[in-house]
Here is the input.
Amino acid sequence: MKFLHIADLHLDRAFEGITAENLPDRTIIWHDIVAAAIENQVDFVILAGDNFHQSRPSFMIQKLFFDGLKKLEEKSIAVFLIFGNHDYIRKNQMIEAFPRNVYAVMGEAVETTTLSLTSGETVAISGFSYQQPWINESKASEFPVRSTADFHIGVYHGELGSANYAPFTLTELNEKNYDYWALGHIHVPTQLADNIYYSGTPLGHNRKETSSGVNLVKLTKTELSVEALNLAKVIWRDLIIPLQSTALDSAILEINQAILAEAQSNTQTIFFSILLEEVGDYAEELVRRLQSGELQELLSAYTKQLVVKIKILSFKLEQSRTELPLSLERLEHLIAQLDLNQLVLPLSNNKIIQDNHLIEDTMLSEIKEEIGQQLRLDFDFKEVDE
Ligand SMILES: [Mn+2]
Here is the structure.
């Protein structure tokens, strides 16, 4: 039998930190997933939670989602669906009832359904949903012992050992003797054991999500094969450029050429984050143009690629700057210790901000990066004996 394991679709999530116009339609990914299910003639599709980015997905996003489910229904492809910590399910949120091919878990108790496949084989699938943004205890013990069906699959949205997201241990999952665990929550594709996988998000939504995937799983009585399909038409790339230039004009030329070279070897749309090394004495001017957004704009125009972020990793400045008796290492440590969460605590407790996930962890880590960049530009750091 064959199925698709999908997780963390976050269908209504915007590309983070991008305000440019005429962006590729990010909902195409759902259309492409449905097409891949049909093309690969899978028996069923598993959606392992965070199908939406929020617990109140817009009506139009839902319509789009339901359109895909109905296409799968037309091809007699079953769907097993749970809700995660982002799209935790509440009453009166869905615009229509799920079509008959869909088994949606609507509560936090573990439920099991058994599908009879056209091959004559049977498969039991067990999973739970979130009804609030967190679950503080492991749900593993609630999963039933292996069924008498030919195969048994567990669907689990949660995190290894973490307190807030149904923390589980590998031993707990292994003890169930299931054929496959379809996990959700971690957005980077990750294999935890022979048969335990985070498929990852099918489409990256920020510059940390440089890899994405959908798992095409084939199971027989003796064999498990997992193939990661890359369906994303948009990818995020960090491009490190060690600059040779000593002046602004030649530096811009160098950056252009590096972007074009990278773009050439790719068919997808790339959202570039440019990381500059060894920036010379023009650094101050460059930073000013970075902060105004001018440089990103110019590079995007030259290369026809979207440059979403530029960061300076290291300087090679000749002009003298104030020396701080602090090693770079120590500075980085201090910045890492900054508790920005504490700073935005009054905001992050706000219900509207919480419901819409307006404060992202990635946003806070980017602020830290920018603090470091500015400090490194303004000061020289001198190793000191501690
Ligand atoms: Mn997620």
